[in-house]
């Protein structure tokens, strides 16, 4: 288990330490649960009571709250970011494998770096390339002519289809499928004729893809995921979707084909996005939004209907059904008011 003194943490993270520099921490925890060997953070004044009572070995907080805690503290203008960096330094997540497991199946035409780790029953097919310090989990398939960049970590039971390109230092979680066929069919008198999907998926550096997420390959052009994109579990990206740098997508969101998304966008849970539209930079959709048209201007957008008591919902739904009749009545009233105003002239 890794451990660091507070002096070492302060030096590595370039933050100010107030307290015992020789105190050792070896883990992270929430402010309410943290013990003397653990680090935590404080970022919201509504948790002041928790700050006063925490048993944490060190708390990361903003300078203006330094007097609110008597124990060891690291001063940071962005406590949550500093906490994230501490969590990385103290991370105990095990490596997926050590070396190449004897049950792994690696085609003679594949290229696997000496420093790569390939887990049990993983498959690396012809022409595939696995770069330095990659970790390929048990049962994962790296398809023909696929490429996995240096330092990338692919958890067990991931399927990377043929020709997919994955950048450096990416993380792909279990059950994800990258490069499956997009939903492309032509209609022949009610009979569906498959259109081969001849594009691929290009993934940049430092991308994370959640468990059981599915990313379709392009129909003609490629599906493109730019550097720094973070994708949660159970997300679906259809063929030819393009995501700009540092965009983040929460679980159960689906983006239909050929939609282009800009940089630094965020999609909360269960957002549904129409195909063939364009989302600009710094656009943010709240949970359950239905995105049916392009949004090119930066901002926050919503369309989900919050849950209410069933009785109220039934009443509102009944009223919505009468909206056309109400609209007609309003138009008649407008005409009548206009007529009366003309009569008064």
Automatic annotation (TrEMBL):
InterPro entries: Hexapep, LpxD, Trimer_LpxA-like_sf, UDP_GlcNAc_AcTrfase_non-rep. It is an enzyme of class 2 (transferase). Gene3D superfamilies: 1.20.5.170, Hexapeptide repeat proteins, MurE/MurF, N-terminal domain. PANTHER family: UDP-3-O-ACYLGLUCOSAMINE N-ACYLTRANSFERASE, UDP-3-O-ACYLGLUCOSAMINE N-ACYLTRANSFERASE 1, MITOCHONDRIAL-RELATED. The active site is at 239 (proton acceptor). Homotrimer. The keyword Lipid metabolism applies. GO terms for cellular component: membrane. Pathway: Bacterial outer membrane biogenesis; LPS lipid A biosynthesis. The gene is lpxD. One of its GO terms (molecular function) is N-acyltransferase activity. The lineage of its organism: Bacteria, Pseudomonadati, Pseudomonadota, Gammaproteobacteria, Alteromonadales. This is UDP-3-O-acylglucosamine N-acyltransferase. Its EC number is 2.3.1.191. One of its GO terms (biological process) is lipid A biosynthetic process. It catalyses: a UDP-3-O-[(3R)-3-hydroxyacyl]-alpha-D-glucosamine + a (3R)-hydroxyacyl-[ACP] = a UDP-2-N,3-O-bis[(3R)-3-hydroxyacyl]-alpha-D-glucosamine + holo-[ACP] + H(+). Residues 23-89 form the UDP-3-O-[3-hydroxymyristoyl] glucosamine N-acyltransferase non-repeat region domain. Belongs to the transferase hexapeptide repeat family. LpxD subfamily. It comes from the Bacteria. Catalyzes the N-acylation of UDP-3-O-acylglucosamine using 3-hydroxyacyl-ACP as the acyl donor. Is involved in the biosynthesis of lipid A, a phosphorylated glycolipid that anchors the lipopolysaccharide to the outer membrane of the cell. Keywords: Acyltransferase, Lipid A biosynthesis, Lipid biosynthesis, Lipid metabolism, Repeat, Transferase. The keyword RNA-binding does not apply. SUPFAM superfamilies: Trimeric LpxA-like enzymes (SSF51161). It comes from Catenovulum agarivorans DS-2. Pfam families: Hexapep, LpxD.
């Amino acid at each position: 288990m890794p451990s660091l003194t507070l002096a070492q943490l302060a030096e590595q993270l370039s933050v100010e330490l107030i307290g015992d520099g020789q105190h050792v921490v070896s883990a992270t925890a929430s402010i309410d649960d943290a013990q003397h060997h653990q680090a935590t953070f404080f970022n919201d004044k509504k948790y002041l009571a928790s700050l006063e009572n925490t048993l944490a070995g060190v708390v990361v907080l903003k300078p203006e709250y330094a007097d609110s805690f008597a124990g060891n503290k690291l001063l940071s203008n962005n406590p949550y970011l500093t906490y994230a960096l501490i969590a990385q330094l103290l991370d105990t997540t095990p490596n997926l494998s050590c070396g190449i497991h004897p049950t792994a199946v690696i085609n003679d035409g594949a290229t696997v770096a000496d420093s790569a780790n390939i887990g049990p029953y993983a498959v690396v097919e012809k022409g595939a390339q696995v770069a330095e310090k990659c970790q390929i989990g048990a049962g994962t398939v790296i398809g023909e002519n696929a490429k996995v960049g240096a330092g990338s970590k692919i958890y067990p039971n991931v399927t990377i289809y043929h020709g997919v390109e994955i950048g450096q230092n990416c993380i792909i979680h279990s059950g994800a499928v990258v490069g499956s066929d997009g939903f492309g069919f032509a209609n022949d008198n009610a009979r569906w004729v498959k259109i081969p999907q001849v594009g691929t998926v290009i993934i940049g550096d430092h991308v994370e893809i959640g468990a059981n997420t599915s990313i379709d390959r392009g129909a003609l052009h490629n599906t493109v995921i730019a550097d720094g994109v973070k994708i949660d579990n159970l997300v679906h990206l259809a063929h030819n979707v393009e995501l700009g740098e540092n965009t983040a997508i929460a679980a159960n969101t689906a983006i239909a084909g050929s939609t282009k998304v800009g940089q630094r966008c965020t999609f909360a849970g269960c957002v549904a996005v129409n195909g063939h539209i364009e989302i600009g930079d710094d656009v943010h959709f709240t949970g359950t939004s239905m995105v049916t048209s392009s949004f090119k201007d930066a901002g926050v957008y919503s369309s989900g209907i919050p849950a209410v008591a069933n009785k109220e919902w039934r009443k509102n739904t009944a009223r919505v059904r009468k909206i056309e009749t109400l609209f007609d009545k309003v138009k008649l009233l407008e005409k009548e008011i206009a007529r009366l105003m003309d009569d008064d002239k």
